[in-house]
Known about the structure:
The protein contains three helices and 14 strands. It is mainly β.
Amino acid sequence: MTEAPHPSTGVRIPDDLSGITAEQYRASMRHYPAGVTVVTLSCPKGPVGFTATSFASLSLEPPLVSFNIAHTSSSMAAMLDADSVVIHFLGEHQQHIAKRFARTAEERFTDRSLWTTLDTGEPVLHGTPIWIRAVVQQLIPIGDHTFVVGLATRVHDSTDEKPAAAPLLYYNGRYHRPSSLED
């Protein structure tokens, strides 16, 4: 089997995979449910945020997390300059937040009743069951995204409250409650 670098990314791709289109790949990935997070950060022009369904816990010691951001994202330049971020795990009651952060960048932070600022400067969204503040450790360009690795420095977890919020999931191009996937 031979490999050739992808013309725009330089990633080496085996010849037997060259027939997969972005549309085919995207269609298959739509059938993998993922938790919905919103990543927020501060920059000189103001607060920045975006949805990310690629969140992962990487390590317990040290506590490392990761997510991806598309190179075409309106938040990419701010992410490249960020020292820290806050990753919010959305609850099933927060579809409106997920939709807001999928809109144009100018509309994401217009409602001041939805967020406040941490003492470290990052925007934090109200009502999220869990959020993690992380210091950016690595930015790794790969394919058409950048892989972001962060060191968790603070965790806010309200899941012990009753009733605990179930996570918001993204599956087949739509937001779901965990129980709605059973239908």
